[in-house]
Amino acid sequence: MSNLKNLITRKFFAAGKLNRTFSYLLVIIGYLLLQSLSNAGALTSHFSSLLVPLTSYIVIAIALNLTVGFSGELSLGHAGFMGVGAFSAVIVSGLLTPYLPSAPLRLIVAMLAGAIVSAIFGALIGIPVLKLEGDYLAIVTLAFNQIIKTVINSIYLGYDNNGIQFSFVNNKISLGPGAVTILKGPIGANGIKRISTFTAGFVLILITLLIVYNLINSRKGRAIMACRDNRIAAESVGINVMHVKLEAFIISAALAGAAGALYGLNYSTLTPAKFDYNLSIMILVYVVLGGLGNIAGTIISTSILYILPEQLRFLQDYRMIIYAVVLIGIMLITNNDWFRYQLARLSRKLKRRRKKAKGGAGND
Amino acid sequence: MTFLQFLITGLSLGSVYAIIALGYTMVYGIAKMLNFAHGDIIMVGAYLAYFAMGKYNLPALVAVMISVLVCTLLGVVVERLAYKPLRKVSSLSVLITAIGVSYLLQNGAQLLWSSAPKMFTSIIPPNTIRLFDGQLTITHLSIFTIVVTLAIMIALTLFVNNSKMGKAMRACSEDKDTARLMGINVDTTISVTFAIGSGLAAIAAVLYASAYQSISPTLGSMPGIKAFTAAVFGGIGSMPGAFLGGLLLGVIETLVKGYLTTQLSDAFVFGILIIILLVKPNGLLGHKYSEKV
To answer: Is A277 within 8 Å of A75 (Cβ atoms)?
Structure first.
C-alpha cells in the first residue's frame, strides 16, 4: 500500500515537473519561431493580427484552469474579469497618455491596473460565490459576467482641459476644448492607442506560468487541490477551505484581468458586448479540451482551437459547423470506453518496451 | 394601474420563461446535466413554426403541432447521439458536448436560414382588452400565454405525480441504479424527459416569437439563459420551483424595466438571483441534501 502511494506521488511530481518544463519550452520555442517568422515577413498580416489575442487567450485559459482544474470550481464568468481588465486598462491608458508617452511603460501600468481592478472584483464576487457549490456556482458566475457586461455598457467617461467627466446610464457628458472621450456606453471605447505587442504577451504568459506553477507546487497549491478532492477531509486537517479557494479565485481573476488588458489595448475599438458568457464558454472549451489541471495541454489546445478556425475562414459558413462537430466528436471519442481501453493498452505496451530497453542496458 | 399593467406584462413574459425553465429543470433533475442546447431548440421551434405558417400557409395550430413534434424528435435524437454515450463520465464533458450541440444548431440555422432576422406573425391576432376606461390594456396574446402555461403546469404536475412514466421519472431523479433494479427502463425515461422538455421548448418558442415578432438564429440564447436562471432561482430540479422562478423573473424584469431602467434591467435580474442564492443556496423551493461524512 505505501509502495503504491509512493509510486503515485513520485509519478505525480515527475509529471508535474515534466509538464512545467514542457510548458516553458513550448512557449519560448513558439515565441522565437513566430517572432522570427514575423520578422522575416513570412506571416500574412491576418495571421500576425492573431498573435496578441492568442497570447491573451492562453493567459486567461491558464487562469481559468486554475479555477476549474485545480480549484474545482466551474466558472462560467471569466470573460467578465477579462472585460473588467480590458476596460480598466483602456481607461488607465487613455487617461495616462498625456503624462506617460512611453508606450511599453504605459502598457505595463495598464496591465497592472487591469490585474488589480480585476482582483478586487474577484474578491468581491468570490466571497459570496464560493459559498455555493457545483452548478449553482456556475450560474452565479455567469450572472456576474452578465452584470459586469451590463454595467460597463452604461459607463460614459471622457476628459477635457477642465478635468475628467463621468456619467452612468444616461450620457450627461459635455466636453469642452481638448475633449477626449474614452468610454461611450454600449458603443464602448473608440480610438484606443494600440500598444499591446506580441512580446508583451509572451512575457505575460511567462509570468503567468511562473505564478501558477509556483502556486500549485507550493503548500498552498496542495491545499487548493485537497479542497477540490475532498472538502470535508481538507477541512478536518485544518485547511481553511473558504480562504484557500478565495485566494485561488482572486489570483485567477487577476491573471484574467491582465490578459484582458493586453487584449483590450490590441484593438482600436472595443465593445462591452464582446465579454459576454459566449466568450467565457469559448475559454472553458479550451480548458476542458486541453485537460483539467494540465497547463501544457491548455496552451496547446488554446493555440489550436483559436488559430485553426481563424485559418479555416475559406470554409465560410461551414467553419463553425465543423468546429461544433469536432467538439462533440472529441468529447464522444475521448470518453468512449473502448477507445480509452485501447489507449491504456497502448501506453502500457510502450512502458513495457521502455522498461525492457532500460533493463537490457542495465544488464550489459 | 400602471403597476397592474406591468404585472400582467411581466406574468406573460414570465410564463414563457417558466415553460422553458420547466424543460431545463426536468432534464437537470433526471440527467443531472446543464443542457446548454435547450435555448437553441427554442430557436429551431420558432423557425419551424415560421416556415409552416409563412411558407406553407398552414393554420397556426397545425404549425405549432409540427414545431412541437419536430422539436421533440430533435431533443430525443440529440440525447441519444450526443448525451447518452456520456452518461457515466464527468459532467464537464457533457457540458462541453452540450455547448457543441448548441454551436451546431445555431450555425446550422444560420447556414440554412441565413442570419438576417425574419418577421414572425403572431399566432394570436393582435387584439386587446381594455379595462378601467382604457387605463389597462391587455393583449389577447398575454392572456393566451398565461393560460397555456397554467395548463401545461397542471398537466405536467398530474403526469409526473400520477402516471407510471412520471413515477419512473421521479425514481430516476432520486437514484438511477436503484430505479434500474426496480425494473424501470432508465434510458427510455431519460429520453421521454428530453422529449417533453424539447416539446415544451417549441411551445415557448412560438409564444416568445409571437410576442417579439422577429426571429433570428441567436433568438434562443437570451431566453435560454434567463430560463436557466429562473430554474436555479426556484431550485433546480424542482418543477414548482421552475414555474415560480420563471414567473418571478418575468415580473421582476418588467417592473425594473418599467420603473427603474431598461439598460440595467439584466443587472438587476441577475443581482436578485445572486442575493436569493446567498440566502437560500438551493433556490426558493429546492431540496437541501446534507452531506454525509
So the answer is: no
Tens of pLDDT, residue by residue over A180-212, are: 788 887 888 887 888 888 999 999 999 999 999
Q: Does A155 touch chain B (CB under 8 A)?
A: no
Find the radius of gyration of the CA atoms of chain B. Answer: 19
Tell me, yes or no, if the pTM score tops 0.90: no
Q: Select from B86, B270, B283 the Cβ nearest to the Cβ of A147.
A: B270
- CA A85 centroid distance within chain: 12
Let me know if A354 is exposed, middle or buried by CB neighbors in 10 A (0-12, 13-18, 19+).
exposed
- What is the residue extent of each domain of chain B? 2-279
Residue B273: Cβ within 10 Å count = 27
Q: Which residues of B touch A146 (CB under 8 A)?
A: 225, 266-267, 270
CA–CA distance, A21 with B7 (Å, rounded to integer)? 61
Q: How many residues does chain B have?
A: 293
Q: Which residue is associated with the grid cell 464522444?
A: A332
Count of CA atoms in the C-beta half-sphere (13 A) of B254: 21
Given this model, what pLDDT does residue B196 score?
A: 93
Most A CBs within 10 A among B32, B81, B99, hence the mutation to make, goes to B99
- Segments making up each domain of chain A, as ranges: 12-311
Reported ipTM: the value is 0.84
Report how far residue A262's alpha carbon sits from residue B180's, in angstroms, rounded to the nearest whole number. Answer: 53
Q: Does B93 touch chain A (CB under 8 A)?
A: yes
Which CATH number applies to B2-279: 3.40.50, 1.20.1530, 1.10.3470, 1.10.287?
1.10.3470
